[in-house]
Automatic annotation (TrEMBL):
Any single GO CC term annotated in Swiss-Prot or TrEMBL for this entry: plasma membrane
Subcellular location: Cell membrane
UniProt-listed InterPro entries: BphY/WalK/GraS-like, dCache_1, HAMP_dom, HATPase_C_sf, HATPase_dom, His_kinase_dom, HisK_dim/P_dom, HisK_dim/P_sf
Protein's membrane topology: Multi-pass membrane protein
Protein name as annotated: histidine kinase
Signal peptide: none
Keyword Mitochondrion listed: no
The keyword Coiled coil appears for this protein: yes
């Protein structure tokens, strides 16, 4: 039993909700606003610092660029190598900006070198080196102006560095500037929020950081969203993850370099003031809950004193005492509730008096019921008459009707006596029903009886065998319904003899067996005929090909040996003889293909006609690249059928479309599927020569052609082959066309070979 919450507890919870929800709402809104303002302030401050650092870096690069231009002009006036070496050494030692200075001649070879004091190696190591492929040298020689290289690791110091190059007479002066100054700038820039200033190259590598080990390792930050946004030229503030920790960073791009300045701070550090406010808010919320609970407990006792008194009065009324205990003075609504409770008690007292009067009326009703019992007895008499009519109906029924209770017969109508071969009912009644059930049917009968007794629902009609008293077996149809016999569950069964019908079915099965045997005999004859046809086809192929080869071969020999002495008409006649022989050979091949299509054993599987269509299109375009033909192959055309035969059919249709568009400058062939009369049809259409629809009935007959051989070559077997393949798939094929406007051939595929073809309207 579920315990329902008391009104006292509900009131306490309601007071807590009313007190705490406003405090929570105000606190959460204030926290959200404070968090947003703080993030905006930190982002703006960091963005300002990033711009300041960018200007400082830009300024720090301006001095070395000016200095390298100055050196170039000085060296341009001084042509002596010794003087140039002195000049380079003095300049590199006086400024301390560059790690190395190289003077290159016009071919890019090093002719003078000056190295800083802490540089590795000596100047002699670099003399004669070829810098002609150095991008900065090529750029300066091409433009004649100052240029700067990409960031690279210096071989002199091992630190990130850039090169500056300026023209120096016919040569170029190149200075290597170490970028350790960028890390010094990062270290001296102090964000207000204990953040970090990072300088990143245009390839995402760290080139300036307070922790110089990150610069040495060339740490790659290119995968961060803030770096990608900055390299795209989008200055702004972003939140991102680094090593599982959230950071807030601002990014700007240093003009002229493509480098980035990032000022970042851990998000937890930036939001520290908000976290302090959140702790104060939690303390305030807890204090509010405690205070509200104390106030609710104090007020609950004041409110529920009169309610307790009402509950006591209700218990008295339940015991028959209708004198309501006066309620202590309380709130106006409680007083009104007490008044209503007293009115209810008075009404209950009045209703009790009315019930006593009602009992007297019930006594009078009892007398009326006795009269109704007399009428019920009369209806029982009518029921007996109805049962008599039912008994007569059962006894005169042509079907056997029996009732069995606890596994024994307790009733059988005259038709049942005739069915079982009994003279009197005594021969059946009291006997077990299994005595009359054939052993082959006993399991089924037991299951049906169990279902009738357990589920008390009728069982459907079924066939079984019963044994008559004389031992003969008869076939019957039986249906059973639940019944009640003398207060006990029983079953009423209706049986109809079907022996004659079963004998007729047996004769039909025998006839079917004979028919199947005849079909097998006919099938064997057909297989033998097919073998003879195959042998005949081979003979035709062999016996006809030989003379044709002789005609063609001797014709060619005659043309080659006697062509000079033959007149032009003779050569023309000889060429016609050879052409007719070749045409006869092609005709034999087409006939054999048509015969083979009819004889091959079909196998059914899912065939992708779209893929076959694309393969055929590619084969034609590769074989005749000089033709301009566009193919449109619809996606997703599949069918159930023999893949080899369906490829042959589709190949014949595409061949026809290719052939009859040969005279079009811009030919178009389409393979697709459509719905015609609720049936899916596959089609191949073209914009070629077309045909006259008056002769469409000749189109699919062997050797029937609607165009002259001089215009379009062929034997007239292709569409006949398509018709034979489609018919073997239980489908139908037809064509539509117009002279000069192209043709479309449609076909459908049925369910099985030899089955009925799908009904497609002629069009």
């Amino acid at each position: 039993m579920n315990r329902r919450i008391s009104f006292k507890t509900a009131l306490l919870v309601a007071l807590l909700v009313v007190a705490v929800v406003p405090v929570l709402t105000v606190g959460l809104v204030a926290r959200s606003v404070q968090r947003g303002d703080l993030l905006h302030h930190v982002g703006a401050s960091n963005l300002t610092l990033a711009r300041s650092v960018a200007r400082e870096v830009e300024s720090s690069l301006r001095e070395p660029s000016n200095f390298i231009e100055h050196i170039g002009k000085v060296l341009e006036d001084d042509k002596d190598l010794a003087s140039q070496s002195v000049e380079l050494a003095e300049e590199i030692s006086s400024t301390g900006l560059f790690e190395s200075l190289f003077l290159l001649d016009r071919t890019g070879r090093v002719v003078n070198v000056a190295l800083a004091r802490n540089a590795k190696g000596s100047a002699g190591d670099y003399l004669g080196m070829d810098f002609s492929r150095l991008p900065i040298f090529l750029e300066t020689r091409t433009t004649g102006e100052l240029s700067r290289s990409k960031v690279f690791l210096s071989s002199v110091s091992g630190d990130p560095a850039v090169m500056f190059a300026a023209p120096a007479g016919e040569g170029v002066v190149v200075g290597t500037l170490g970028l350790r100054v960028l890390s010094d700038i990062s270290a001296h820039a102090n964000p207000d929020d204990k953040g970090t200033v990072i300088i990143v190259s245009r390839y995402g590598k760290v080139i300036g950081h307070p922790d110089y080990s990150l610069v040495r390792r060339q740490t790659d930050l290119g995968g961060l969203d803030i770096v990608r946004e900055g390299l795209a030229g989008k200055a702004g503030t972003h939140t991102y993850m680094v090593n599982g920790e959230s950071h807030l960073g601002s990014v700007v791009q240093i003009p002229g370099t493509g480098w980035l300045v990032i000022v970042e701070v851990p998000l937890a550090t930036a939001l520290a003031p908000v976290n302090e406010i959140e702790i104060i808010f939690r303390i305030a919320t807890l204090s509010t809950i405690v205070l509200a609970s104390l106030l609710a407990l104090a007020g609950r006792s004041v409110i529920f004193r009169p309610v307790t008194a009402l509950m006591a009065s209700a218990r008295q009324i339940a015991h028959g005492n209708y004198d309501v205990v006066p309620l202590p003075r309380s709130f106006r609504e409680i007083d009104e509730l007490g008044g209503g409770f007293r009115s209810m008690a008075d009404a209950v007292k009045t209703r009790e008096s009315e019930l006593k009067e009602r009992n007297e009326e019930l006594a009078m009703t009892e007398e009326e019921l006795r009269q109704q019992l007399d009428e019920y007895q009369s209806s029982q008499d009518r029921l007996v008459e109805s049962e008599e009519r039912y008994r007569q109906l059962v006894e005169s029924a042509p079907d056997a009707i029996v009732i069995h209770c606890e596994g024994r017969y307790v009733f059988a109508n005259p038709a049942a006596l005739r069915l079982y071969g009994a003279d009197t009912a005594a021969q059946l009644l009291g006997r077990e029903i299994t005595d009359f059930v054939h052993p082959d049917s006993r399991q089924v009968v037991a299951e049906r009886i169990k279902l009738l007794y357990q589920e008390h629902s009728p069982v459907p009609l079924c066939e079984q065998q019963v044994i008559r008293l004389d031992g003969t077996v008869v076939d019957v149809e039986v249906v059973g319904i639940p019944y009640t016999h003398q207060g006990k569950p029983a079953v009423q069964a209706v049986l109809r003899e079907i022996t004659e019908r079963k004998q007729a079915e047996l004769r039909i099965r025998q006839l079917n067996a004979e028919l199947e045997e005849r079909v097998r005999e006919r099938t064997a004859l057909l297989e033998a005929a097919n073998r003879e046809l195959e042998s005949f086809s081979y003979s035709v192929s062999h016996d006809l090909r030989a003379p044709l080869r002789h005609i063609n071969g001797f014709g060619l020999a005659l043309m080659e040996e006697c062509g000079d002495v033959l007149p032009d008409d003779g050569k023309m006649y000889l060429e016609r003889i050879r052409s007719a022989a070749r045409r006869m050979g092609q005709l034999i091949d087409d006939l054999l293909d048509l015969s083979r299509v009819s004889r091959e054993i079909m196998r059914r599987e899912r065939v992708n006609l779209s893929r076959i269509g694309r393969e055929l299109a590619r084969e034609h375009q590769e074989s005749w690249p000089e033709r301009r033909v566009s193919f449109e192959i619809e996606d997703g055309i599949t069918a159930e059928g023999d893949p080899t035969l369906l490829r042959v059919a589709l190949a014949n249709l595409v061949d026809n479309a290719w052939k009859y568009t040969a005279k079009n400058e811009e030919a178009h062939i389409r393979v697709g599927a459509t719905d015609i009369g609720g049936t899916r049809a596959i089609f191949v259409s073209d914009n070629g020569a077309g045909f006259d629809m008056r002769y469409v009935d000749k189109l699919f007959r062997p050797f029937q052609r609607l165009h002259r051989a001089e215009d379009f070559e062929g034997t007239g077997i292709g569409l006949a082959t398509v018709l034979r393949i489609v018919q073997r798939h239980g489908g139908r094929v037809w064509a539509e066309g117009e002279v000069g406007k192209g043709a479309t051939v449609y076909f459908t595929l049925g369910q099985s070979e030899g089955g009925s073809m799908e009904q497609i309207p002629k069009g």
